[in-house]
């Protein structure tokens, strides 16, 4: 009898210990899951940032437990083109952390050890061409005032424009669409195409720009904060590269285009925050061109300041991206906002070689010109 009681006591003690251990593991797992959710949210925002997509288009929807699984659900608002660009990066990030990837049309599902991350993608249909019988939008520009200062009303916002100042425009990611490049180059305005190396039409786009006697840039890929999950593309310069490799990489990129009029960075939210690596890159760039523009892909960039200290370079910095959303009204607003800055300075803005961006430029630039804004090439506004 005594032996039986002792045996039961030992069993109860072991069961109690096992239960406490199980509870502790569960608590640790919940903490891990909570941390995982935070990490995923931040990582996804960095993904969007490095792909030049507004982080507000990511929404955390819910966290639910079902049996032994915990489900995290997100919504992402993307155009179809943005989805195709960002999907490989997302798959790379999750797979490097041991997640299996399941693609279900508008859903991307990642699963590991009872953790399921479900990303629902809402496709933005904003590239549709208006039908021929659609009513044209009314002119949005008011008549000039007698003092030649202009007030422009866009979507109930008033932008004050003053004449005689200069606006320069760069269109990034060129080299992938020759017809669109030709459309831009045939405009009377000196919009600068910045060409990504190793794209399908990189050299052809450069040759076309030379034919039209327009300035063009190398859109130099640089390491983003989300690297290696986000790949900046072939021809990128990275923080772990010695200067000799940076020199070879930049030279090969420029040689592909047959020379360039300037350089600005593609991505680079990590690289442009590093003063030493930017100095190495700019020391190479100045051997091939005298112009560098900081694309301003991070608030903590030092690229412009390092450029200013680099002898032999003229430097500029983008005031803003005009087409983080591809919506035509959004792009129009950003152009007029940029023109509103002209009262105190020359301004550089960056867009992308996309249909909607080019369509808006064709409509808005003549209006800005009538109001006294001078649309100029980059070489006129760098210091």
Give the topology, please.
Layout: H1 2-50, E1 58-66, E2 69-78, H2 80-96, E3 100-104, E4 107-112, E5 115-123, E6 150-154, E7 157-161, E8 166-174, H3 178-185, E9 192-195, H4 202-211, E10 216-222, H5 243-257, E11 262-267, H6 275-285, E12 291-294, H7 303-308, E13 314-317, E14 320-321, H8 328-340, E15 347-352, H9 355-370, E16 374-376
Parallel strand pairs: 2-5, 8-9, 8-15, 8-16, 9-10, 10-11, 11-12, 12-13, 14-15
Antiparallel strand pairs: 1-2, 3-4, 4-5, 6-7
Helix pairs in contact: 3-4, 5-6, 8-9
Please provide a written account of the structure:
With 383 residues, this protein is an alpha/beta fold. The protein folds into two domains: 8-123, Beta Polymerase, domain 2 (2-Layer Sandwich), CATH 3.30.460; 150-380, Alpha-Beta Barrel (TIM Barrel), CATH 3.20.20.370. It is built from nine helices and 16 strands. Strands 8, 9, 10, 11, 12, 13, 14, 15 and 16 form a nine-stranded parallel beta sheet that branches. A five-stranded mixed beta sheet has the order 1-2-5-4-3, with helices on one face. Strand 12 (291-294), helix 7 (303-308) and strand 13 (314-317) form a beta-alpha-beta unit. The longest helix has 49 residues, at 2-50. It is globular. The protein starts with a helix and ends in a 7-residue tail after the last strand. 37% of the residues are buried.
